Amino acid sequence: MEVEDFKKDTFLVTFGAHIAKVRKSKGYSQDRLGLEAGFARGTISKIESGLVEPKIGTLALMAITLSVPLSKLTNVEL
């Protein structure tokens, strides 16, 4: 694995954990967020596990559903 790939993977795991924290703080399960935002539960799980890099539109829909500013989802401590 290249150093850049490792950094990207590490970031995605950290980013996903942050999204999960925000989701839980708003009282949403992965199922509920997926249902209300129009995504499969598996999509939410993959994002939160750092397996996929979400598109900005996906993050925007999640933020709208959770009633938080988009910056709340993207403001990650690295």
What does the secondary structure layout of this molecule look like, with pairings?
Layout: H1 3-25, H2 30-37, H3 41-49, H4 56-66, H5 70-74
What structural category arises from helix and sheet content? mainly alpha
The strand count comes to 0
Q: Return residue spans where pLDDT drops below 50 for at least 5 consecutive residues.
A: none
Write down the overall mean pLDDT: 91
Listing every helix as H and every strand as E from the N terminus to the C terminus, the arrangement reads: HHHHH
Q: Fraction of residues in helices? A: over 70%
Distance from N terminus to C terminus (CA atoms, Å) equals 21 Å
What share of residues are in beta strands?
under 5%
Outline the biggest β-sheet.
none
SS element count, helices = 5
Question: Explain this structure to me?
Answer:
This protein is an all-alpha fold and 78 residues long. It contains 5 helices and no strands. The chain has helices spanning 3-25, 30-37, 41-49, 56-66, 70-74. The protein is globular. It starts with a helix and ends with a helix. The mean pLDDT is 91.
